[in-house]
Amino acid sequence: MPKPAPATYFEVFNEIAIIEQLSRTLLEARLPDGLIAPHFTVLNHLIRLGDGRALIDMARAFQVPKTSMTHTIKVLVAHELVEVRPNPEDGRSKLVWLTDKGRAVRHQAIADLAPDFERLARGFDTARLLEALPVLRDLRIYLDEDRNSAEWPQSGTSNAASAR
Amino acid sequence: MPKPAPATYFEVFNEIAIIEQLSRTLLEARLPDGLIAPHFTVLNHLIRLGDGRALIDMARAFQVPKTSMTHTIKVLVAHELVEVRPNPEDGRSKLVWLTDKGRAVRHQAIADLAPDFERLARGFDTARLLEALPVLRDLRIYLDEDRNSAEWPQSGTSNAASAR
DNA sequence: GTGATATGGTACGATTTCGTACTTTCTATA
DNA sequence: TATAGAAAGTACGAAATCGTACCATATCAC
């Protein structure tokens, strides 16, 4: 097989960027007013992996600067969707816990997305999506690990990483 | 084949969102100071599809509000990477043209990304990427068209769409 | 043609994102 | 233990994103 041209890789990431933009806009349309995708993503993360996570760990998981995560958490606290408490095992860090309201909002958002997924299932061959999932997962894992490798240009304080 | 659970679709978009985040960070590390991904994306768009595009058309292509595109273009103008001129066929609109410097910056950025793509080719089975490309392309096309369909929640002034 | 409506773009303010600098706490090494 | 360095979080300011309101121009109905 001939080596693919760089433009081909580029197209893959370009398509991914467009899909991310479209799906994010759709998600945000299903969220309560004042909540945007990063807020929901944090709620979802805390439910899927369990709450009581440190702020810094979530910043790493989402590959955002810790200052950005501080702001995101602050908004979630203002909406009473999470609570922040000190980490008893490390005086520097704080742990983030879901409130009942936070769980409910996440649950409702997923329920409100159901019609969109159903429409997708009607209009798109979902078998192809499932085929692509392992590739996407492995690509994400590769990029995540590669980020920690030597050749990555480290940018300020947003470094380090781990699987989401 | 059993119908996939919504969580499976969700995972696909979640992986895509993470990949977008990681690849965007990498791209921005290769751009000149002061330029971020949206700036490059506009340059790339103008080269791939030809310049002299209307601002509103680019906003639609990227699914961003026209106010966001106005700002992006303003930065590109400040960097002398594009020029904005009136549309002789429509007194309301403006057309965006690349400068030589704009073409050069885009060309250089792609050249600077080459080592990253080569590293990717060494560490990841690129055949799998190429297999996924048609699915991603079709999914993007579907979502783009679906956005214009009835069931989409229209959001403010960022409406309408067309292929990038 | 004239008026009503739609469209392209901008002004403005609110929110988000993020880099830098700093404080506090932990860890490692002597 | 003492102390230097690393790590977690925040304060702050700059830039980006985006919604609302508004102006100028175009299009449509009559």
TrEMBL record, chains A, B:
Residues 1-141 form the HTH marR-type domain. It comes from the Bacteria. InterPro entries: HTH_MarR-typ (IPR000835), MarR/SlyA-like (IPR039422), WH-like_DNA-bd_sf (IPR036388), WH_DNA-bd_sf (IPR036390). This is MarR family transcriptional regulator. It comes from Roseobacter sinensis.
